[in-house]
Design a protein that fits this description.
Elements lengths: L2 H35 L6 H22 L10 H28 L2 H8 L2 H12 L6 H6 L1 H13 L5 H27 L4 H34 L4 H27 L2 H10 L1 H12 L5 H29 L12
Helix pairs in contact: 1-10, 1-12, 2-3, 2-9, 2-10, 3-8, 3-9, 4-8, 4-12, 5-8, 5-11, 7-13, 9-10, 11-13
Length: 325
């Protein structure tokens, strides 16, 4: 295969991976909101724990039973040194996302999550000494501005949910950077990452979920005469969460941390549309405009990235802007 066709195939594969991730992401978000709001299952730690249990089982099935992927053997010391930190941050990220979903609408939560590219760039600059062209920083201005305006005009504002979503952005950025380092630096693939990460996350979350939500969960189970349909939806969201976790790491492997988070912004419009159709949460005209500002920032970023990549390949081969995509 010549270089031109290889580049085209790589681009197509990345786009398909991002679209697949969008589908699983939006579906899981809508299902989780349905669980919290319609089923009145207000236990975000338990839901997160179920997701990780399903992810552990799914990865074991794919690698050990079906043998669709070979197991990448990792020494026990490396598991704790390299995988456990990412699992811990990933666990915090999932929990904060579910907590925010309990208190604020999907549209507002997703808009706040659009702040993640900015936190990713800042973290990479501060702690990983990665330098970005000034135009990359400029492309983040409308994204950050849109988030600030949305927070001011949001009709269903809740400080606890807002704080959870905001701190979730930092957790998402850290998780994505650590995952990119693991996948690119240590030659991990997406399913092996889930295989090693999900059991750690389950172990981290099981005890807090039992201590904090255990008694109320028993009351919920006793107060529902027919819980099979509800449990089917809850565990169904766990199965989809496994597919989502797999797709997340596959996209990170195919692209980079910043591209992954900016692509996440483009699913905001889809998530907001579906959440409004299902839950009918109020969305003002100003909220729609501010979301549009964020999406313009995403498109501006992609334009700047393309322009800088052309410069890197052409007249400025030594220019250091972004990692490869």
């Amino acid at each position: 295969m010549d270089e031109g066709r290889l580049c085209q195939w790589t681009a197509v594969r990345s786009i398909l991976a991002i679209l697949q991730w969008w589908g699983f992401n939006v579906t899981v978000i809508i299902m989780n909101k349905w669980i919290f709001q319609i089923l009145d299952f207000k236990f975000p730690l338990t839901v997160s724990c179920i997701h990780f249990i399903c992810s552990s089982a799914g990865a074991y099935l794919v690698i050990k039973i079906l043998k669709l992927k070979p197991l990448i053997v990792v020494e026990p010391e490396d598991r704790w040194r390299r995988i456990f930190p990412m699992s811990f941050v990933f666990c915090i990220n999932i929990v904060l996302g579910n907590v925010s979903l309990r208190y604020i609408p999907v549209s507002f939560m997703q808009t706040i999550k659009s702040f993640t590219p900015a936190t990713t760039v800042v973290l990479q600059w501060l702690f990983w000494s990665k330098h970005f062209d000034w135009r990359i920083w400029a492309s983040l201005v409308p994204i950050v501005g849109g988030i600030l305006l949305t927070s001011i005009t949001e009709l269903s504002f809740n400080m606890f949910g807002f704080s959870a979503a905001l701190f979730g952005c930092l957790a998402t950025s850290t998780k994505t950077i650590l995952a990119e380092s693991l996948l690119h630096g240590y030659k991990f693939d997406s399913i092996n990452t889930v295989y090693y990460m999900a059991p750690f996350a389950t172990m981290i979350l099981a005890v807090p979920a039992l201590l904090i939500e255990g008694s109320d969960l028993i009351i919920w189970l006793q107060s529902h005469t027919s819980i099979v349909p509800s449990l089917t939806i809850i565990f169904g969201s766990g199965v989809l969460a496994f597919c989502l976790n797999f797709s997340i790491f596959y996209v990170i492997h195919s692209t980079t941390a910043v591209t992954f988070n900016v692509a996440g912004n483009l699913k905001v419009a889809v998530a907001i549309t579906f959440s409004w159709l299902i839950f009918r949460n109020p969305i003002s005209v100003s909220n729609a405009i501010e979301c549009g500002i964020t999406l313009v920032g995403c498109m501006f970023y992609r334009y700047v990235r393309h322009m800088l990549s052309q410069q890197t390949l052409g007249t400025h081969p030594g220019l250091h802007t972004l990692p490869r995509t």
